[in-house]
Design a protein that fits this description.
The protein has 217 residues and is of the alpha+beta class. It is built from 4 helices and 12 strands. It folds into 2 domains: 74 residues, no CATH class; 127 residues, Jelly Rolls (Sandwich). Strands 3, 4, 5, 7, 8, 9 and 11 form a 7-stranded antiparallel β-sheet that branches. Strand 4 and strand 5 form a beta hairpin. Helix 2 packs across helix 3. 24% of the residues are buried.
Amino acid sequence: MNKITHHPSDALLRSHVDGDLPESLAVGMTLHCDLCEHCKRKSDKLTQEFAAKAWQEPAEAESVDFSQMLNGILNTEVETSYLKEPSVEHIFIDSFHYELPRVLTRYVDMKWNQMGAVSRARLIEEGATRSNLLHINAGGVIPTHTHKGFELTLLLDGSFEDESGHYHKGDFIWLDSSHAHSPKTTDGCLCYTVQNAPLHFTQGISKLFNPIGNLLY
């Protein structure tokens, strides 16, 4: 198994644990932490710190009976459906088969659009910020482009490479307008992506793709 070498920043991880991220980015962070033991440990530690701080009773809240509140939570009846093991969902794209990560099973009813070797399924739309599942077939290449905003790519399966290196399952890649790259994959890959602006193709004939850049956004 390849080692995960690309991780979110500490600031982004802290914002995630504190609940400050929009759904699209929070899902990306959850996917990474489910795959990366290093970031999961950091997340768990931050969660404990935030929990300890939250349970420190402020002077103005001395009248709150936390024991009664906790008893109410513990004595609440839980529907058995919530205790069942969640079903495993699978997706099939051309000749590829993937098991969908648990956090993505709520979006299982997805519609795929295909352009050449690239297939995209929209998941979450929050104003200008959009998240997708992006699949690139074996041997596929996305022409050289930059980003008008930011782009998060969380590699869920397979591998790809660009001018900056090789990426494997679990890698968390954050790019902005200062980066230009051309991702390509030998064996195919499945990614979770978040963007807040369309791609901007930059070289030669690939510039002709700019009018349809929204297909990848």
